[in-house]
Structures
1.
Amino acid sequence: MQTPGDFDLSRRGVLAGGAASIAAVTIVPTEPAAARSKPAPAPPAAKVAFEVNGTRRELELDTRTSLLDALREHLHLTGTKKGCDHGQCGACTVIVDGRRINSCLSLAVMHDGDKITTIEGLGTPDKMHAMQTAFVEHDGYQCGYCTPGQICSAVAVLDEIKAGIPSHVTADLTAPPQVTALELRERMSGNICRCGAYSNIIDAISDVAGVKA
Amino acid sequence: MKFETPATTNPIDQLKIIGKPTNRIDGPLKTTGTAPYAYERHDVAANQAYGYIVGSAIAKGRIASMNLDEARAAPGVIAIVTADTAGKLAKGDFNTAKLLGGPAVDHYHQAIALVVAESFEQARAAASLVRVEYARGKGKFELAAALDTAITPPTVFGTVADTSVGDFAAAFAAAPVQLDARYTTPDHTHAMMEPHASIAAWAGDKLTLWTSNQMIAWSVGDMAKTLGIPKENIRLDSPYIGGGFGGKLFNRADALLAALGAKAAGRPVKVALPRPFMTNNTTHRPATIQRIRLGATADGKITAIGHESWSGDLPGGGPEVAVAQTRLLYAGANRMTAMRLAVLDLPEGNAMRAPGEAPGLMALEIAMDEMAEKLGLDPIEFRVINDTQVDPEKPSRPFSQRRLNECLQTGAAKFGWSKRNAKAGQTRDGRWLVGMGVAAAFRNNLNATSAARVRLDKSGVVTVETDMTDIGTGSYTIIAQTAAEMMGVPLDKVVVKLGDSAFPVSAGSGGQWGANSSTAGVYAACAKLREAVAQKLGFNAADTVFAGGKVKSGRRSVVLGEAASDGELVAEDMMEYGDLAEKYQQSTFGAHFVEVGVHAATGEIRVRRMLAVCAAGRILNPKAARSQVIGAMTMGAGAALMEELAVDKRFGFFVNHDLAGYEVPVHADIPHQDVIFLDETDPTTSPMKAKGVGELGICGVAAAVANAVYNATGVRVRNYPVTLDKLIDKLPDIA
Amino acid sequence: MKSFTYERVDTPAAATAAFARSKDARFIAGGTNLLDLMKLEIETPAHLIDVSRLALDKIEATTAGGLRIGAMVRNTDLASDERVRRDYGLLSRALVAGASGQLRNKATTAGNLLQRTRCPYFYDTNQPCNKRQPGSGCAAIGGFSRLHAVIGASEACIATHPSDMAVAMRALDATIETVDAAGKERTIAIADFYRAPGKTPHLETALAPGELVTAVTLPKPVGGTHVYHKVRDRASYAFALIAVGAIVQRDGSGRVALGGVGYKPWRVEAAEAELPRGAKAVTAKLLAGAKPSHENAYKLPLVERTLAGVLAQARG
């Protein structure tokens, strides 16, 4: 079997420090630690104001704060979930100015003046949105962690179809897309459910759209 | 309560609430984003700081030096925890590798430090300023290359490495029809949607962890051992868990480092594992190499069945028990199974949904398909011929229930199996080659001691408390249904509280034992509460009826709450088990049917139809149980078609360690799924007469997909996942 | 993520001026790739210039009969534009084959062109990667390379460009309009936009530092049947193993561009002359000189077979 030593010989340059001891390549100091004698200054912050679920919110945030973390950690709207923080799962889906986005890959400070709808804005346990009710009725969730993202996405998907936005499975690009199970599956594919509630989720959305799954 | 003889008629058999497809009671919270998961508990402790973990950049070796100066000087940093500063830590019984590494490094992305800061952004940035120099050691990272060093693993939880019945070698050699084939399954990752997360707070020497964990009592014990403090000083609270699949059976680095970080910072600390870090930091389902030999008579009776499996793990780890089902699933007088375990320096292997059977059936059920073809038999007929109603290794021991044949035959009728062309590569639908596949599903039923406490208040509300967890399985709901059935109240008069170590110890969620075991524990507690109610009301316990929110005895009838009019009634009990599981082999059975399309030009594989038929004892809630099965079918489709942790054999880590690189099925991969439960009860399992389905659902699915791909294309792929690159050179030429 | 200062600008001139006066600045629009990389400290700008609200969000007809697509036009809006759907179906198809609905709602035209490779070793900062850290080596060579380039790669880098949109843009002969810090405008043919990795895989495009993409222009429609076939393991929300974009005319002539095979959308005009002779002949010229690894050699027959399927589909 290949060993790291063999590898070094055949792939010169991959391990800069040699086989026995390496300084892991990306954590070589870019400036010497000693050069910094006093504590670093506070990180840059910026003010932002946006509307969340109909309420104006003003925040002063570290510029690095994602919209997702602004919602979860600063506004304590924890219905929006962090599944991957890299746009790979859809659990953080919220609706901004009518469009669904991944709130993890968006800086909060870039949303000044925007109108944001989160799962909490769609409905509450006492007054559920039709999509939330349908998810319960069709058991379109299991662990529940991807669920708010699925529901926000589902609400937006029906609007997207209405607006004539095509998808990968739209057969005729020049004709208006229809609400079909095939269309819903493709359009919902940015929302991963590892519990595998997909079949039930499509039933729930179809129910709300008034079509047969 | 002790369960020692098969159940007779009991209040559960009324089936007024149990057995009904009620909506899950946690639904309104989960669908509105108001169910609180571990990292979201802003309310439980004030002044929470943020921890961010630093993981090892090498797979094996040691930390030569660690410089924390820059990280310490970074804005907002409150504390840094490393093995040097953490004090003496033991390793938990359930952990193979230490949760906090250093100076020795056992695997890639093993945690080596925690940086605690005022904000998440500050902690994350400062973590990258921890400067580490490593001395890289030589490790073993490739299973196929380590086979020579594999040893016979010791017996763990009663599972021996090798079994043998009759004379396998002679019978196989003499068999008129033989199959001898090698199969591989890759490493899989749980990839649950909620990353492992914990908030820790200390009050003096008492620690509270709000975490995401399937097995509360195990993890309290292991955390106590790791930290060297009494169990009584630790409280774990895990009411909502964003998926587990075996990946949250044990404490992981988030929990330990939150505890250590909170101690170092002198305030509550919250830690979540970043997604790209989870795969190599936590556990995974280990890869296997399997050899299966089948010998049969010309008319299809198996005379020899042999299954060997090799897997790897870190030193001190265990094997993937991929031969488990082969010991029980099919008849055959001459049998052998064997497992071998190699030391690998990859991250820790451990349980993932149906450990053993899931990868074992991925191989065995392809082998059965291959053998059926050699015999010229329909694959369903071949399985039916080789059914056994007794444990084939110990024929004196019957199955408590076994309706595998009925699963296969019911499914065949429902799925339209008769339309399948037995000759592969014959069916076309436009640009798609179409095929059908079948596989048997098998998973043992396990029971575990489980306790609960029930409270009755004067308004007639029954509150159940148990440390049982709901990982998406429906525990809240079936426990509520059990209590409602037992106490004769509607579902909305039951409150269920789960996941808190302050509650009585349950079976927890794992090994598909949760549903039957935890509800049986609630049954026991409710039986005690019924006695207390009768006694309080001065009723004769023997003839007291609980129904419609009332308690009746003879001509007397009062509302249930009356019994608690001068104070809450509280009862606590546990269900313990005798030897019925030794007398009877208790297993769950099923059959999976899959139709696939394979693109004639590109080899892209898409699942078109899926059906599962399950025989798994009483189904406590058909809606929730169906969800368990479709979810497992989805994970099985992933295992069949896309899931594989790519091992870098030079550097020793899983390369595709995020949700972009490790593909799991998305909506577009999964068609409408059908599930049929055969109507049955198993009185040997508990008064609930139930078993589990959550793992049964994944068992065999991948093989059914692989067999369907073969039926569509005529190309047999024995190395999972079945991806188009393994088909492309063998597909028919296209114009 | 390193801390950074942030400003929002209203005009391209303000954007380039802001860049000129800042140290380590980057433009940010949709952010779907840049923020992903910043979280892992693969990108570490000290200053972010928010160009997402520049008035570059229009799709306008050009005097040459084509379309001028503003750099800030979102992928969803571009794919949905009536003219694009009618006349540049390949572009619409490629766009909706990429990413997810959520990401397409944020991702911009310019950002899509400029997205960086998804090589897992590029993404893992513990691993050597010449693109991320010049001179550190390439871990993908000899490593997990099933998804990597089969053509145009170098000893230093075998990464692919992940964009679907760019494949269509290449087949459509798009040109990229930019403005630099001095206010100088220029256009770059998409064929010249991506740099071969050679010994400097960290240099990916023809853009100079601070040069801002303002628009992408499509020439007038070429007609024909447009087919985009993206091949992947799962059915959606995945990067391509390979992708074939083709425009096929009634007389059998046409254009072919590939995704998932190299550092850029791969098109060889000379290979298109072979279209009447079929996929095998086209692929032989298109992928001449390909050097696959053991793990990605399947891409060669896959391209040929996918193209054959695409041509069959185009013929109806």
2.
Amino acid sequence: MQKKAVLLFILIFIPSYSQAFDLYVNSIKATIYHDPSIGSKKITVLSKGIKIQGLKLEGYWYKVVHNGVAGWVYKFMVKKTPPIDSNNLYAKLRSSFSRGRSLGQSARKRPSAYTTTAAARGLKEKRKRFSSKYLFDYDSLEKMEAIEISPQDAIGFLEEGVSK
Amino acid sequence: MKKQIFFLSSMLFSLLLGLSFAGDFRNRVSSFKSDYSNLADIETEIKFGRDLAARILGNYHILENDKINYYINLIGKAVSLHGRRAEIRYYFAVLDTNEINAFAVPGGYVFITKGLLKEIENEAQLAAVLGHEIAHIESRHVIKELKIRGDKNSAASGLAALIGGSTGSFKGAFTQMLDNAADILFKRGYLIKDEIEADRLGILMASVAGYDPSALKILLNKVKHFESGSKAQASDHPFYNVRIDEINNTLKANGLWGLTSALVKERYHENINL
């Protein structure tokens, strides 16, 4: 009876804390290596989104298991959560982004619209408090954001160069 | 009697073992919560970073050269795909200044100066510099230093409330936070521990992408001599010798010491003609 109680206690209490944890490939691909070293033998290459089992973390490397085979993956290619779709995220955020100039406005400016309004109301202290020390330029920012490169184009360009 | 001792010992052993795992489990959960990775934190980081990037561009002009800017974006994007922040859209631009510097802004905005491009000798060195800057963003160095959280109930800034808030005090605090972040980028620079971490991660990302792992070390050895000379504008990258020692350790610890990979010199000079 007592042995059964011990066994039951061990079976219930320990496994819930000692099991492996889920990891998801968040980079475009992740190589599983035989040892925690980029120079070691490559076991397989996994695509973004694939779930693997993490066993432990040592330095910058997770020891993992995939399809029954153990290996090591570079820590900064995986996360404990699946990859977030940036298209959905940016579609939601875009409406709240600060925009570039409208007609008649200067591209580079120091005070915010709030500061201008505050100044017009004679709120001198607040104007000083709300003024940024730095100029800002959303027109140039939008120009920077206009360059869109697909992952396929970037990887294709990369491989063309590094494989030579 | 023996059975009772065995029973009690077993229960005690199991309890201690369980508590040990429980502590580890709590640490993992705690660590997960403190990594700034919930959706509200990410949204806040992107909005904040975007406004901070506008301040970089308020102080520098983008180089008027579509070919160079496109090329920088191709390389930067390719390196960033080997990081783990799939939710971030990375943008890259060349700043039209002879200063030797680069900036990483939260939310995915990376800037490199024309002066630094002139010193870079090949695509592997460019990839290493961009990898270093991407690593600052991947590791959320500015965000963590300023404790910028999306959760308004957090002990830190509750910046989501600041961004969403329309009252003067909210906007004032938001502007102040942006100025603090700009001070880090323009004046004080990153913490040395963050610079070293960015070196490590940047080298690993660029190496996994296929570039020569020693590229950053060679570039740092070259530009460190400008620190106190007339070309000195690299003020946010101090302690070069410490960094180079740490890079050597990283190369050795990750099986990269002595490995040679692609430098891609010709394509660099075809695209970067300054």
